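Recap quiz, item 2
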Amino acid sequence: MRRGFILFLSFILMAGCTPEQQILEELQLIQTIGYDYVSDDEIMGTGGSTSIPPGQQSLPTDEVFSAIGYTSKQIRQKLQNESTKPIVIGRVGVVLFNQKLAEKGISDLLDNLQRDPEIGRDIYLALAKDSSQKMISTKYSSSVPTSNYIFDLIQQSMEQDMPRINLHGFLYRYYGKGLDAYMPILQKSDARLKIIGVGVFKNDRLVQQINTEDAYYLKMAADKIRKGILEVSYKNKKLSIENLLSKPKITVKKRNGSYEAELTLKVKGRISEGGGFRMTNKTIISGIEKTTRKQIEQQMEKLIQSFQESQVDPIGFKRKAMQSRTFSNKKWGDQYAKMPIRVNVQVTIIHAGIME
Amino acid sequence: MLPPESKKVSPFFVFYIIHSQQIGVAVLGFERYIAKSAGYDAWISVIISGLSIAAVVWFCYRILIKNGNDIISVHHQIFGKRIGNVLNTAFAAYVLLLVLLNLRTYVEVIQVWMFPETYHWVFISLILLLAYSFVSGGFRVVTGICFLSVIYGIPLLFVKYFPLKEAHIGNLLPIFSHSFSDIMEATKTMTLNYLGYETLLIFFPFIKDGKRSEKWAYFGVLASIGIYLLTILTSFVYFDQDQLRTTIWATLTLWKIVDLIIIERFEYIGIAAWLFIVLPNIALGLWAASRAINRFTPLTQRVSLKGAAAAVLICAILITERAQIDQLNFMANTIGFYLAYMYIPLIYICQLAVHKWRDSK
């Protein structure tokens, strides 16, 4: 009798425990979000979603919604008014920020992204050179929906030649003292989308843009690289080194109150395009190693100098310095722009492919 | 009034009971509270606090072995019936406070992360009903839940692999960059997470050959230190200090990075699995409170259990805001702190004195 009563009671309670039902086909799954600058207070939000129309062998179609508002939640409400199905943002993969907006600062939008429990942390952030709305509403491929296209493009390039960063990594660098955040820059040219470099942030503002070549050097300084490609010119011939393994190490020293830093890179790889040299010759191999070393050192030093000039530190020299007991924030701030930062590269060519 | 032999459990179960009591809903978000005062050095506090709790458990065993029964009879022995019963009531209320804290915090997590539209009383009633049905099965059933909770918790530890892949070990440097008083402050805050071992003071007579269970209790505390240490070190190498300060549930947030083929968002699995971690805290707490009330009042344990469950239900429903939950945490922490480091050693000294005095008579 009592058991029956408890069972009855739990059924009644269960009935109250049904939140709004969510059926996949009846949701508007937003996969890409774009934010554009409208005026100093207002922003335009764009949501790109993909829906598969009923019927066999029907191709997925893209749907894009845009609205202007003061906060991203207000925009979401306005977007809802355009859609026949409830908008859900649990599957967002990429968030795009318009360049002009990023120069003004994106802290409010970041706050919204990390406050929402629906948003994952392994999603990508990227800058849109022009309008992110246009970027989301263009169709780039006949078989792949735009949202997936943008996601795959970023994911692929971060595997290969762009510094790896997702929402968590960005927030880590954004909050972290002694580190500055960055994100890739996308540009639409006609019906193509490509990554044209990396934007470096100071706090929540975009302050510096570097091209893809420099971005690769930033990747070498910030990530552990497993498979990379590097092009070097040796005796006026272009060679390329593949399967590049590289690992950065930062050391910071303080001598008589003045800081100096050193970035050590250990690079290993194999030559994939020989340029007509005999690769069994030891002097040639060591010659290539030396040229590669010089090239990386020069490029890297130039890049670091440009960071010092714009007072950003995406590589994290300050972070490393802070891990010492004697760190002084003021001294570092005064010295950073003119601090000597040496780059020290060790190159080893493992082999040169399957032919001599 | 000692329990019959058929209702007792083997000494090694004390490991599971103590360990499952100490691991609760707090694991999901304790990092930020202790990192507030000691920053990246807070992991030292986790160790200090855990070891000091092991010392408190030593005091508990000395008191219980000498008395042979539970805290109720210790109170009666030292302070007499009247004052003893006041203390007994306070103790039962404190155990219920811990139950309330676990229940309400867990329901808050469900509400914020999974079902923001559902009323909190729905989850509160469901979980309490479940816990009630376990407790009405008696102490052996509750012990079983504690055992299962430890087993079910193990897979969740493997999930730490994903954040550790992106770890920044350098975060922990330089070690000892905070002052001793900062670390002690964090140690005090950490006490809350180790609470729950006090139920030992009630269930001790239910252990077969109670003396032999002592080492299992220490192993239980050590295992809890291990879990908390692993959790906090993972969060520290994964998050930045300032990022951690703004993250209410650090462990839950780092589940967001888990990348499994068939599961897009691991938090939902994690929160659901966490019910089994929270359930023994609620069940054993309810059992201990009802047993305590039953020991010093003429009520049967069934009646006292219903009363205790109803009290928790009403209090849990009345708490509606984050700030109130925070306040509740703070209150439990303060009471638990003084109970562990002042009251239990005090009882030990009083008991020694009473025995000396009796012997001399």
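The interface with chain A takes residues 112-113, 115, 117-119, 122-123, 125-126, 129, 133, 166, 168, 170, 173-174, 177, 239-243, 246, 253-254, 256-257, 259, 264-265, 267 of chain B (CB under 8 Å).
The radius of gyration of chain B is 20 Å.
End of item.
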